[in-house]
Write a structure and sequence with these properties.
This protein is an alpha/beta fold. It contains ten helices and ten strands. This is Oxidoreductase.
Length: about 325
Amino acid sequence: MARTPRLPCASRLPGKPRLPGPSGWSTRDIPALDGRTAVVTGANGGIGLATARELAAHGARVVLACRSEARGAAAKDRLSGEVPGARLEVRRLDLADLGSVREFAATLPYDRLDLLVNNAGVMALPYGTTADGFETQFGVNHLGHFALAGLLLPALLAAPGARVVAVSSPAHLMGNVDLRDLNSERRYRKWTAYARSKSANLLFVHELARRLAARDADVVAAAAHPGYADTGLQAAGPRMAGSRTGERLAHLANRVFAQPATAGALPVLYAATAPGVRPDSFTGPALLNWRGAPAPAWRAPWTLDDRASALLWDASARLTGVHYEATR
């Protein structure tokens, strides 16, 4: 039986920045987005909500893709009060269920899509599985978004200058994807599984950018991360594990060290809207990947490996049944 190739070792030093550095970029620099349509996953809170707010404020029609329709409706009401005249709609999307992903894509009533922000995610959860049997962090953070982007690709290709933005994390530096154990069945460590899912986000962008370039498609695939931002995501894992102490510590750390979600959304908004964003670029906060204006972000060299990205792509297509026919 042939052995599965080993991916590059996770102990190597981070790669060098790959993006010309914007200086002092802010929401004031977002261009007019009138006539554009954007889908933002996990738009009911945190980075997703802040991203949706700015896109709507600059004229875009924004689809709030949320697992909970009730929380999505509450977010829509809040944004409508903050952004008079905002064009918003809520659609249910559960990235932990490929049936929900397929239904979302099939019922989205737009032939053209200008922007897909793959923002929703989970972090450092106790072991669990999705509706389709995948380890939850890998299934939600990577496979759900992989399937969504593939199903929406025809609409993205129909919109000149469209973009796909994957939201990763500096935590990707803690772990490379293990193709021999994608679902962490041999050993589950919650932070390692999270890191691997965030490396998977960057490998996805690397391979999608390569495939789009080969097709000469007018779509940019890029990645971003929010640094350390107070989104509530940090406390979810301890809460699910029943650790009140862990949950309190997460909230305390957010109050002391984290920047607000509105600041964390800036690198995502830069990747989504700034002129000249390069395919396969990675944007994060300027100050030590922690906080500040958008700037080139360090990324692990294994996230730039052509062979690794192709192997993960093939595995993801097999697991989800989404094969990106338009990029073959």
